[in-house]
Specification:
4 strands; two-stranded antiparallel ribbon; mainly alpha; 186 residues; single chain; 4 helices
């Protein structure tokens, strides 16, 4: 076998076409304006940068607004009025006990026995110091003072010369369908 082409394998050469001219196909300056395209690209770049800066500023403004504590609207109810009517479940938000002196003790998120402990403490204080109204004025006396007063004054007894009929009870009779009563000695 002999090679038609000497050397290594097949060679491809591009033919010289510089002598070929097509007069009908040429570049015209009116087809594409390089200056117009470059101005469009520059304007598009400036607009993209302006949009990005505007969006960055808008997000910073919205984040600042979200960080502020929102003010309730003029028609919004206060927290106390939004809670359901009492009695409320123990350990629920808004659960509190109002003591006799007007103080409110919040018991939300505490164990159920906390309510009893608070009330028992108030009752023990009333037994020691006397019952007070909301203004702080004592309207009842301590139990020890009441016992001392009864002991010093003495207990009332039956009047001498009184008979059992003086202590009789008036009970309705069955015959009168409860309209009349008769005295019975207990």
């Amino acid at each position: 076998m002999t090679d038609k082409h000497p050397g290594n394998g097949h060679k491809t050469a591009t033919p010289d076409v510089s002598h070929i001219r097509n007069v009908e196909v040429t570049h015209e300056k009116s087809d594409v304006s390089v200056r117009g395209v470059s101005m469009f690209v520059i304007a598009l770049t400036i607009a993209a940068i302006a949009i990005h800066l505007g969006m960055w500023g808008l997000f910073r403004y919205l984040d600042a607004q979200a960080a502020k504590a929102p003010q309730p609207g003029p028609m919004a109810l206060p927290q106390e009025e939004r809670l359901p009517q009492g009695p409320r479940l123990q350990a629920a938000p808004g659960f509190e006990v109002t003591l006799e002196d007007g103080r409110k003790v919040k018991l939300e998120r505490r164990e159920p026995q906390a309510e009893y402990r608070v009330l028992r403490q108030q009752w023990d204080e009333n037994l020691r110091t006397g019952l007070k109204d909301q203004s702080g004025k004592v309207v009842g006396m301590p139990i020890d003072a009441a016992i001392d007063k009864v002991v010093s004054a003495g207990l009332p007894s039956r009047v001498k010369g009184a008979t059992m009929s003086d202590y009789a009870l008036g009970l309705p009779t069955a015959a009168s369908s409860g309209r009349e009563s008769e005295k019975r000695v207990p």
